[in-house]
Amino acid sequence: MLAGPTAVGKGTVSAYIREHYPEVWLSVSATTRPPRPGEIDGKHYHFITQERFDAMVADGEFLEHAVVHGRASYGTPRGPVLQAAAEGKLPLLEIDLQGARQVREQLPGAYFVFLAPPSWDELVRRLVGRGTESEAEREVRLATARRELAAQAEFDTTIVNDDVRRAAEELVHLMQQHICVVSDGARADEQPPTD
């Protein structure tokens, strides 16, 4: 599981992994927010209505779900993740802090990685540089980011996203180690990767 504050580059790292590591299966979340420029339905997110989202929640179809930044709903469909894991793939969920906490309750053996910015100033620069939010939305996201950064200790390890390629390689390496630990019959929470 990969989580971190808004604008830290979770999507960029995931996109690099998608392009360079075909053995990694990336979960596609559902969201009620509209697509950003360049986002493709079914590839980046499943863009659905709030009514459909609520029905999926009621039917227990999400591994995790949350309202993010007080605006849009996001969720990880349960079935595809469990199927990918059962097939021996390396499943990667790119989720927010709330989602990571829910997944930890449901999948306690999962490995949780926090993606951190090199500095607070760099995080602000990235968020402003995206140009996808209004000033009011940026303020909400920055307040959320402060809370998310404070939760870093809840994760199994932290990767600093100072270089996308390096961060992606480190993440895939940790995933491969974790799968080996689990496949050797040990519980993941007893023997985390030591790298």
Automatic annotation (TrEMBL):
Task: Show where the Guanylate kinase-like domain sits.
Answer: 1-176
**SUPFAM superfamilies, per the entry:** P-loop containing nucleoside triphosphate hydrolases (SSF52540)
Q: Which CDD domains match?
A: GMPK
InterPro entries recorded: GK/Ca_channel_bsu, Guanylate_kin-like_dom, Guanylate_kinase, Guanylate_kinase_CS, P-loop_NTPase
Broad class of enzyme this protein falls into: transferase
Primary subcellular site in the record, as a coarse category: cytoplasm
A Pfam cross-reference name: Guanylate_kin
Molecular function terms from GO? ATP binding; GMP kinase activity
Query: What are its GO cellular component terms?
Result: cytosol
Q: Which PROSITE patterns match?
A: GUANYLATE_KINASE_1, GUANYLATE_KINASE_2
As for what it does, the entry says: Essential for recycling GMP and indirectly, cGMP.
Q: What NCBIfam families is this protein classified in? A: guanyl_kin
Tell me its family: Belongs to the guanylate kinase family.
Recorded protein name is Guanylate kinase
